[in-house]
Design a protein that fits this description.
Layout: E1 5-7, H1 12-35, H2 40-64, H3 73-85, H4 94-115, H5 125-142, H6 148-171, E2 172-174, E3 191-192, H7 198-206, E4 214-222, H8 224-235, H9 243-257, E5 263-266, E6 269-272, E7 277-284, E8 293-300, H10 306-321, H11 328-337, H12 341-356, H13 362-367, E9 374-378, E10 399-412, E11 418-431, H14 437-451
Parallel strand pairs: 7-9, 9-10
Antiparallel strand pairs: 1-2, 3-6, 4-11, 5-6, 7-8, 10-11
């Protein structure tokens, strides 16, 4: 089982480590200035590279060491490159060079395995940092008699570097909360699902785009109970409570039993948002054809009650409608309009590429209407039936739902009596690659049962299932 290693900013040893590593970087720069500048290639490989790797290590530990300590393997690999191309007087034979390079590769692999928690002995890092420190100590004695600057160049930065590494080992802790923590292959907006069947792992490479992989689903929900529930909630003070809140709250509650619909595809891999349900909706500040559209994104949880959904959604809507300023989405879109068309195509290509590898900045993910769990839109407010809305090939949104106006239907019962019922028509467009048809069918059957008893949405769920690993 994988360990979840972390380093807390509150640990004094972490700051002592940072002090040593920053001192190592400063020492390299100062010593380089004392020795004088050489060729530009040597400056980049012997000064810029190790300094950048050292500072990157410090930043990862201090800024993201609580959740993503494993990323320190990146600057460690950069330092290995530095030591690989650094001139060494003793490496005169091919055999010695081969053994040296093999040791560097082995060093990086061992650090990668330990830092990602795959090896259950993090104390082994003591040897990874202690052995080079001992080698530096030995080198110090062999340099006696040389110039002061030359001794400092070979010894001081390395002393501080590996001493900081040893301090870091004593600052490392193991998460014991029993929850999942990110590792290699995860994204900032989701955890990768690694235990899918072979077919489900291969199919995204065959069905590449969402619009070539979508399923269309249509149903009608009887809402007599829902209407009574809405009137009850409005009497309780939720004045703008409506069918959107009920449909959305039911969707969240169904995710408690079928969490697979909170998955998404990115880079031909399947991920899950976990307990973060990102709901997107298009709204207008005014109900007129001239009023521009904007998009809001609300972060919900499967455990949210109907009241929670109402408060979160209403707060987001009020923020947009009551503000004279543009939303973050509007400001971001306006910034893109300033880019000339030819360059904008390149920018969009770059964003697609970054998104493919999970490198898109978090602030762009937050304002993007193309990234999320669910897009739910009301055609009823426009006075028209629901439509099948396409999925976006850009981004990762896997579900797009639309519902229309309420309608009445006259139905004949088995005993011959005639009753009038209320319905709302709903249409879903679904990415078939996140779950199979059986799973979708089970989800919507449960969803429909909840809509028949909306009062259960007043209380948190008794059980919340987690998605597979």
């Amino acid at each position: 089982m994988r360990l979840h290693l972390y380093v807390s900013r509150k640990n004094p040893l972490a700051w002592l480590m940072a002090l040593c590593l920053v001192g190592s970087a400063v020492a390299r720069i100062v010593i380089a200035c004392l020795k004088g500048s050489g060729e530009s290639l040597q400056v980049w490989s012997q000064i810029v590279l190790p300094v950048a790797a050292t500072l990157l290590f410090v930043l990862i530990v201090l800024l993201d060491g609580k959740e993503r300590f494993y990323k320190t393997a990146i600057p460690v690999a950069l330092m290995a490159v530095f030591y690989a191309i650094r001139p060494h007087e003793i490496m005169t034979s091919t055999i010695v060079r081969g053994m040296y390079y093999t040791c560097l590769v082995f060093y990086c692999l061992v650090y990668l395995v330990i830092s990602s928690g795959r090896l259950r002995y993090p104390w082994l890092l003591l040897f990874l940092f202690g052995a080079p420190l001992a080698a530096v100590g030995y080198a110090h004695w062999t340099l006696i008699g040389r110039g002061f600057v030359e001794i400092l160049y070979y010894v001081l930065p390395e002393y501080l570097l590996f001493l900081g590494g040893i301090l870091l080992v004593f600052a490392i802790r193991v998460h014991t909360d029993g929850t999942y923590h990110p590792t290699w292959g995860d994204r900032s907006d989701g955890r990768r699902i690694r235990s899918l069947s072979a077919m489900n792992q291969v199919s995204p490479y065959i069905m590449v785009t969402r619009n070539s992989s979508d399923n269309s689903f249509e149903d009608s929900f009887e809402i007599s109970h829902v209407d009574r529930y809405i009137r009850k909630k409005r009497k309780e003070g939720l004045t703008n409570f409506g069918i959107t809140h009920v449909l959305l709250a039911c969707y969240l509650r169904t995710l408690c039993k079928y969490p697979g619909l909170n998955r998404f595809l990115a880079g031909q891999k399947v991920y899950t948002h976990g307990d973060d349900v990102q709901y997107c909706m298009t709204i207008k500040k005014e109900m007129s054809a001239e009023s521009p559209d904007t998009v809001i994104k609300v972060h919900l949880k499967p455990t949210d009650t109907a009241d929670d959904v109402y408060r979160k959604l209403q707060a987001a809507v009020d923020e947009v409608k009551n503000s004279s300023l543009d939303s973050d989405f509007d400001n971001t879109a306006a910034a893109f309009t300033l880019i000339p068309g030819v360059f904008l195509k390149f920018v969009v290509w770059l964003l697609r590429t970054l998104d493919y590898f999970g490198l898109l900045p978090k602030f762009l993910l937050e304002v993007s209407p193309f990234h999320g769990s669910l897009f739910f839109t009301s055609m009823g407010s426009l006075g028209i039936p629901p439509v099948y809305h396409h999925l976006y090939d850009f981004g990762n949104l896997p579900v797009f739902a639309a519902f229309g106006c309420k309608r009445k239907a006259i139905e004949v019962q088995e005993d011959g009596t005639v009753v009038q019922r209320k319905y709302v028509d709903v249409k879903f467009t679904l990415d078939e690659r996140i779950v199979d048809g059986y799973y979708y069918a089970a989800f919507f059957k449960h969803y429909k049962r909840l809509l028949a008893h909306p009062e259960v949405l007043d209380n948190p769920p008794d059980v919340v299932l987690q998605d597979i690993d």
